[in-house]
Design a protein that fits this description.
CATH topology: Rossmann fold
Number of strands: 5
Low-confidence stretches: none
Largest sheet: 5 strands, parallel
Bound molecules: thymidine-5'-diphosphate
Structural class: alpha/beta
Shape: globular
Radius of gyration: 16 Å
């Protein structure tokens, strides 16, 4: 199973990704890896730093870097795991580029759909969207004291990203599970995630 976790900054997806990975390994005794973008491959930390530093000037640079990061991540981590029947739990993936660079920055969707297909990026079996109002998410990120360049762009940017995610989930409802997580505790969200996965026959 290749499962990706998406949501605006501060949506709580890191906590849930790590809980799911522990559950798959601990409770279900499955082979599973936990990874993330940007930067989930050897060497990726350098790219991650460039991309989140907010110093890139050309309006397409950010998107190119995320695509490069993904291509290397797939080749060195994701595809080998899929090929050896290992579950991949991945925090952020191509849908982050679509939500942030297309809905957020205004780049064209069609080109990035075509690039992903032409580059043979594997399509996740399931993508979980942690949907949260930007106001709540920003409050959470601030309380953690971790506002990177994206988070500093504030509510209007995050609102566009959220709209992007919702549009993406509507375009392919078979692949997406949308979990509302404005007020719910992380235990409640986790339970909802497990029951949604089970109801789709993904974890038995
Ligand atoms: P990170 O610190 O990993 O944030 P988070 O914990 O919320 O994932 O920073 C990654 C940032 O990069 C985040 O704001 C989302 C953004 N991003 C894109 O804009 N496009 C992409 O393709 C990816 C993978 C991430």
């Amino acid at each position: 199973m290749f499962i990706t976790f998406e949501g605006i900054d501060g949506s709580g997806k890191s906590t849930q990704a790590s809980l799911l990975w522990k559950w798959l390994v601990g409770e279900k005794k499955r082979k599973a890896i936990l990874t993330r973008e940007p930067g989930g491959w050897p060497g990726g930390e350098v790219l991650r730093e460039i991309v989140i530093s907010g110093r890139l000037k050309h309006e397409w640079s950010e998107a190119y870097l995320f695509m490069l990061d993904r291509a290397e991540h797939i080749a060195s981590v994701i595809q080998p795991a899929i090929d050896s029947d290992t579950d991949v739990v991945c925090e952020r993936y191509h849908d982050s580029t679509l939500a942030y660079q297309i809905w957020g920055r205004g780049l064209p969707l069609e080109i990035f759909d075509t690039l992903a297909e032409a580059s043979a990026f594997p399509v996740p079996d399931i993508t979980i969207l942690f949907d949260i109002p930007p106001e709540n998410a920003l409050k959470r990120a601030r309380s953690r004291g971790d506002l990177d360049s994206f988070e500093r762009e504030g509510i209007s940017f995050m609102t566009k990203i959220r709209e992007g995610y919702l549009a993406l989930s509507e375009r392919d409802p078979q692949r997406w599970i949308v979990i509302q997580c404005a007020e719910e505790s992380s235990e409640q969200i986790f339970e909802q995630m497990i029951s949604s996965l089970a109801s789709r026959g993904l974890i038995l």
